[in-house]
Amino acid sequence: MQDNKVQIFDTTLRDGEQVPGCKLDTNQKLVIAERLDLLGVNVIEAGFPVSSPGDFNSVSEIAKMVKNATVCGLTRAVENDIKVAAEALKYAKLPRIHTGIGTSDSHIKFKFNSTREKVIERAIGAVSYAKSFVEDVEFYAEDAGRTDNEFLARICEEVIKAGATVLNIPDTTGYCLPEEYGEKMRYLREHVKGIENVILSCHCHNDLGMATANSIAGVMNGARQIECTINGIGERAGNTALEEVVMVLKQHPYLNLQTDINTRLLYDTSIMVRESMGMPVQPNKAIVGANAFAHSSGIHQDGVIKNRETYEIMDPEEVGVTESAIILTARSGRAALAYRAKKIGYELTKIQLDTAYTSFLECADKQKEVKDDDIHFIMKRIHKISKIAVA
Ligand code: KIV
Ligand code: ZN
User: Fold this and answer.
1) Ligand 1 closest atom vs CA 11
2) Ligand 1 site: residues with CB under 6 angstroms?
């Protein structure tokens, strides 16, 4: 498949939810699944049905409820997993079974004590069996990031023959460099017969902080699906963050790759996931962190007040953040103080600003951030010295 649409496969409720402390009950999962559908994700990986009765129930209820997206359930290359997933997905409008097996030499030797040939047989068997229940079968080659490309190409070709519609190439351990991961996708496109009839999918982990870069390298080299989670939650250092890849593609239109995501819902969705999982988002997290659109140094604040684009590459409203924030600290200049004072009702002359700024610095040196209440206090003090116009 070579059009310009990148499918967004959300695995917040599977790879994200399996993290300690992020466990959700069925009702919480339903609320998030409904929001993901509204956000415009193309696939919702709702869980791993065989793992527990609770997860089976969640996948089944999500399958009944979701209106637009494909609903997907994870399995190992094990017949019972696949049968149980098919049962959980039976009411989905668009069901997908996601089955697979480890393909790196390390997984083959240490996890399965097996051989490459036997792993190929299991992969073919799993895909064929899944195909007896649903049309849409995604195959994952776990640890593909560390799998030799020639062997990866062989197994991909075999599972395509068995009926796979999507090939997931996970960098399970977050080891690859972007160039290497992109090259892997290119290699598969050039060496696997039938690859033009399936979607290649990126599934990257963030152990070295490169999940987003790797996913983008993947789609620049022909992949057309990205597997990701809201806020980048997931095993260890997490998965590719949905909000990041979506905004990278949006902010770089020359790549000519689009998604169906309504980006204005990104921030609210991030809050919803953060709160229901109780998993905080670091303040400097790209796109959805508390500081993502906050400016605190005087030089930056002066620039942003004159023109937002001096220090912002995207409009906060595009991701659902109402406005950029000017944070007042001891590093702020007069421009920032005048700007904030005006926002809360004080129009200052140059002399008044000079006086206020001295009091402001005294206050800022004592505390991390100067809040609106502090400004009101400062204004009251200098009001005694000179009359301040309330805007
Ligand atoms: O990281 C991974 O390899 C996975 C697979 C199970 C798809 O999550
Ligand atoms: Zn994963």
Assistant:
1) 8
2) 15, 140, 142, 168, 170, 172, 203, 205
